[in-house]
Amino acid sequence: MARRTASDVEALLKDDNKVKVAGVDADGVLRGKIMSKSKFLSCIRSDSQGFGFCGVIFGWDISDTVYTRELGISNSANGYRDLTARIDFDSYRRIPFENNIALFLVTFMDPEEGHLGKSLCACPRGLLQRITAQYRDELGYEALCGAEYEYFQFKESAQSVVDKGFSNLTVLTPGMHGYSMLRTSLNSEYFHDLYEESAAFGIEIEGHHTETGPGVYETALAYTNAERMADNAALFKLTAKTVGMKYGIIPSFMAKPHNGLPGCSGHVHFSLKSQDGKNVFAVDEPRLDAKWPDLKHVSRTMEHFIAGILQGLPDVMPCLVPTINGYKRLVENYWAPVNVSWGLESRLASIRIISPPLASASATRVEVRVPGADMNPYYTFSAILALGLYGIKNQLELDIPPITAGADVAKASKRLAKTLKEATDQMSSPESLARKTLGDDFVDHYAGTREHEWQVYSQTVTSWDLERYLELA
Fold first, then answer.
1. Domain named GS catalytic: which ranges (predicted)?
2. Can you tell me the distance from the alpha carbon of 299 to that of 271, in angstroms, rounded to the nearest whole number?
3. What is the phi-psi region of residue 339: left when phi exceeds 0, alpha when psi lies from -120 to 50, beta otherwise?
4. Do 91 and 191 share a domain, yes or no?
5. Which of 400, 411, 428 is nearest to 310 (CA)?
6. For the chain, which terminus, N or C, has the lower number of CB atoms within 10 Å?
7. What is the dihedral of CA 52, 57, 63, 67, to 10 degrees?
């Protein structure tokens, strides 16, 4: 499909007087602003097809606190200089819940490479674009993805949670009601509005229902190409939070907001499409040479893809589980995978194969069940696809046996990191597969941001500290 030109964009905006632009930071947070139409048009007609955007968004954390240890992209030594935010003409859509204003997403460019050089090493959109380009250029494949979000709803506002000290929050509905037809009747206006506003925003939803837990929803976003899927996933969070505000509701994508309950997953699905439109992971006939019965309905390419993920999964964990809280979800007996494991239709494994005989051949795909709802979808997709590409190019063999019914998953294979610090140390190591597949520049920057997250956490006195030690220590 032909890409939009500046003239195409100008025609789309003929009745507008302003435009919204936004980029994505390392935490997956959308950072943007409104720009006058005249300024915007001058930007898209420039050599850079972009504008200056303060680089501090890669120099501070999720709460706008400058990193404890200054990192290379944005720091006091370079004056938190501007980055070039290159406007993606094909990202155009309109925000239905914000007066239908036009929105364009940007990719942040590396100032050392010149205005039309390569994207910034840590730019989430840029990283994913580089990985998907490798699939197209080296293999002739298009990467397809899907994302499913689980998220708790609280009958609160931004002010009320502060006033309550983020404790004793009111859940939207009580009780455990997975796939409930009854619970969607409560707050039905919000439930349906979220679906409709997403659709109007260009975010197609395949499934939208309650999940088990007080006030928990699950929303499965419609399968599409990886870059569009990541945009949709990031913008769905914005949609949910904005629509929620209208109803006095905070949807939380925090991975583990409650003790004693399952956390919120961000399950992600992957497949590859050939130039003639075929699913590269599917086979016409069962494979007689499959090493494991669970593989007989999938291609050798899919086997290599999975092998690459399994080999590098421990090394990219911060890309899948980026927060301190996320590792509190990855505990035994709470429907979250904690080991390097795989299996056919197994929801206990890190990697679930979806294929015949239970699914159609055209739906053959890989589900990675490790990420939480707090994932940065661009980093998550990039990490998984990069490892899959590594497996395909090196024709890696899947030598870990699959999880079988009744198996002790805890003994299946290597335990994944239990903390963000452990995961970050593994990613940073010289032999990390993250370095080989995502690049040293990315790993050095992103690991630095996670080290900061751990340092802030480890130095914070919490209510748990006070309750446990104030009187008795």
1. 124-473
2. 11
3. beta
4. no
5. 400
6. N
7. -140
- Span 58-70, pLDDT tens digits: 999 999 999 999 9
The amino acid at residue 467 is E
Indicate the number of domains in the chain: 2
Closest Cα to residue 447, out of 431, 434, 460, 433? 434
- Domain holding 116, by residue range, is 6-120
Give the model confidence (pLDDT) of 232-281 as tens digits. 999 999 999 999 999 999 999 999 999 888 899 999 999 999 999 999 99
**Do 301 and 419 reside in the same domain of the chain?**
yes
Q: Per-residue b/e over 265-278, b at no fewer than 16 CB within 10 Å?
A: bbbbbbbbbeeeee
| Residue 471 falls inside a structural domain | no
Beta strands in 285-418 (DSSP E): 342-344, 351-354, 365-368
Amino acid symbol at 412: A
Residue 362 · residue 108 · CB < 8 Å: no
C-alpha–C-alpha distance, residues 215 and 155, integer Å: 9
Q: How far out from the chain centre does Cα 442 lie? A: 16
Q: 157 and 286 in contact (C-beta within 8 Å)?
A: no
Give the separation between CA 69 and CA 467, rounded to whole angstroms. Answer: 31
